[in-house]
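Today's session is about reading a structure prediction critically. Students often jump straight to the picture, but the first step is always the sequence itself: look for stretches that repeat, for charged clusters, for runs of hydrophobic residues. Only then move on to the predicted structure, which in these notes is written as discrete structure tokens rather than atom positions. Here is the chain we will use throughout the hour.
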Amino acid sequence: MTRDVAVLLFDEVEVLDFAGPFEVFSVTGRRTGLAPFNVYTVSERAGPVHARNDLRVVPTHSFASCPPPEILVVPGGFGTRREMHNAALIEWLRSTSETAELVLSVCTGALLLAKAGLLSGLGATTHHGALGLLREIAPDADVRSESRYVDNGKIVLSGGVSAGIDMALHVVSRLLGEEQARETAAYMEYPWPVSPS
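Below is the predicted structure for this chain, in token form.
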């Protein structure tokens, strides 16, 4: 089974927040002829997205053309402070999350999930610089300041930036087994596994 993985993009998205999980899911299984994940990017509208540090990325899909993903990756970055108030994006997250098998957030992507009402009663984490803001937005979530990632089953959240790679490898291990996750990490020359906390 090949799972569609949609990676959300928006202006001022943190580059490694989206590129780290994109790389993990894109390279998993490829050296043994497997294609367990079909990874693509999505943004609200067609056209280039201006990521952090002026990296320009052209998403594969707009919200209107995006195939329903089995896995949704919601990265963070300074742009989340604006996108928290973007009703179209929050509604797209809410509706897409209803049918997704897994919803993953990296860094301040957790703020967007909180605004979409997806963190009620769940464990959560985010970048260390946004823990207080996450507690304000999601007062009934169990915000864990020491956790690199938190697995709630359907919703999995990671701390900032490079922690998204650890979370993505954890998800690969959950879905395809630890051996496959270790092989992916070895190919990326990335030290894994790490403890979630």
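Discussion point for the tutorial: The first helix runs from residue 15 to 27.
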